[in-house]
Amino acid sequence: MENMKKPHIHLSARERQIMDILYTQGQATAGEIQRALPDPPGYSAVRAMLRVLGEKGHVKHQASELRYVYTPTVGREKAKRSALKHLLATFFDGSAGEAVAALLDASAGALSSEDLDRISQRIEKARKDGATK
Description:
Layout: H1 13-25, E1 28-29, H2 30-36, H3 43-55, E2 59-64, E3 67-72, H4 76-91, H5 96-107, H6 113-131
Helix pairs in contact: 2-3
């Protein structure tokens, strides 16, 4: 059995930025991550944050020549689903309907016809899938 801590859902803003870089690039060294960060902290701070992300179970590293190459331990889609479940539980009492309503209220004027069509199609699919259960 693997002796690894269960990944935490909570990430600081800087940890989220690092994870975004890793998801975009697939893998990166601490120096590459530091250069990609807005208003970058020092190299030692980036290494410390990567160590913490490793302890939380979000990243792993592999030695490549004289440096570590970091990769996410969980795929982006799985991480998005986990974050969304946490968001639903924290702010919407687990209700996807309440979350969708809040998103629609917040972005009503910014949605294109294509966006609205795609949302309508997803709602219809959910209705059909729900009726078969």
